[in-house]
Design brief:
Elements (H helix, E strand, L loop, with lengths): L6 H8 L19 E10 L15 E6 L2 E8 L1 H17 L5 H10 L5 E3 L2 E3 L22 H6 L1 E3 L11 E3 L3 E3 L2 E3 L3 H4 E7 L12 E7 L4 E9 L3 H12 L14 E11 L6 H12 L6 H13 L5 E2 L18 H26 L2 H7 L2
Helix pairs in contact: 2-6, 3-9, 7-8
The structure holds zinc ion.
Length: about 350
């Protein structure tokens, strides 16, 4: 049923020239093909958008025609980390089969578990300890590593003589709050007892929370991706429902994809849209529907933009579900992502001169 009226599938079909083919041999090299994605993050709880270990919500100043307004902000690295975690959740629901994993093993990838002949994959974010080093959980070959970036060392790939950084093909604008910091953030006092800590002395602490209803406008750009890779990113982004520090308790959010644009250049920034909104609302805590409506109004001025959000609907009626199904994930592993991994392995061989040696023997 979704096939009949699937605006995303239609958009991707129509803009095929801004995507890459899954079997292109030179996919490691950018052709500058871009899918811009503008989205809104609506606070529905009391999220903590702050840098780890710091008590304050991240804040930036925006100049609106001579007047400087401070707004809370979700930093790009927070969006990227959340996108990766959500993407890995989606991928873990459809583990690649033995044949597929054997193919990656034959390329030289190491992080494949073999349990009595049953192979399995996992990839997770595990930052190195204080002693430094690289992330110990990233596998170096899954769609998430190949799309969002990873580091390939001798621990991930047999033939890697040194560490290779694989850049993310998803880049971000900050997601700016459209309400002034003063109206968007409250200090709440928490009791550590309720946090599972049993002692009661000195157990009160304060955190700065974003209040419900604050809308953040963000943008990401997907570079040089295939149709299925794009779908995986969109499906991960649109299904984020919790964000920020202590997200299990505080961070309920709704992500609404406002629109998409396929191009060879970037046409809009979250900064421009935020300024437009604040100029109209003066940064007051207006209803989220008003912010969506104004943002869509702005995007409509860019002719090529495909608007997905309905400016006349309530936020809980915005039904922009972008799903990647199991068959598509299987194809992604077997084809799009596998070909990308082949390109990486060949490139590393070339850099290390291993390929040359082989060809000189002839
Ligand atoms: Zn991975």
């Amino acid at each position: 049923m979704s096939q009949v009226n699937d605006p995303i599938a239609q958009f991707l079909r129509e803009n095929n020239k801004y995507l890459r083919n899954s079997d292109e041999a030179d996919r490691l090299f950018s052709k500058g093909r871009k899918i811009e994605v503008v989205y809104a993050v609506v606070s529905k709880g009391i999220p903590l958008f702050r840098t780890e270990g710091v008590g304050d919500v991240n804040v930036l100043d925006i100049n609106i025609g001579g007047k400087v307004i401070s707004v809370p902000t979700i930093l790009p690295e927070k969006m990227q980390a959340k996108l990766r975690r959500r993407m890995l959740e989606i991928l873990r629901n459809n583990n690649p089969d033995n044949n597929t994993l054997t193919k990656y093993e034959q390329l030289g990838f190491i992080k494949i578990t073999d349990n009595n002949g049953i192979k399995s994959w996992n990839c997770y974010v595990a930052p190195p300890g204080s002693e430094g080093g690289t992330d110990i959980g990233l596998c170096g070959y899954c769609p998430s590593c190949n799309i969002l970036g990873s580091i390939i060392t001798r621990n991930e790939l047999k033939t890697a003589g040194t560490a290779y950084g694989l850049k993310s093909r998803v880049v971000h604008d900050p997601a700016f709050g459209t309400t002034t910091y003063k109206d968007a953030v409250v200090e709440l006092t928490h009791n550590k007892v309720g946090d599972g800590v049993s002692y009661t002395g000195m157990s009160l602490f304060q955190e700065s929370h974003v209040v419900p209803g604050v809308v953040f406008i963000g943008k990401l750009v997907i570079y040089d991706a295939t149709e299925l890779e794009t779908k995986l990113v969109l499906s991960s982004l649109s299904s984020i429902s919790r964000m920020g520090g202590g997200e299990t308790k505080y961070g309920s959010v709704q992500v609404i994809i406002l629109g998409l644009n396929a191009s060879d250049r970037e046409t809009v920034s979250s900064y421009d849209i935020t300024r437009y909104v604040i100029q109209k609302t003066e940064g007051k805590l207006v209803s989220p529907e008003d912010v969506i409506k104004l943002s869509v109004e702005y995007l409509k001025n860019i002719k090529s933009f495909k608007i997905l959000a309905d400016p006349n609907k309530k936020i809980d009626e915005q039904n922009i579900q972008i799903n990647i199904n199991n068959n598509e994930i299987t194809t992604l592993w077997a084809k799009d992502n596998y070909n990308y991994s082949i390109a990486i392995v060949n490139y590393i061989k070339k850099v290390e001169g291993k390929e040359k040696k082989g060809s000189q023997k002839k």
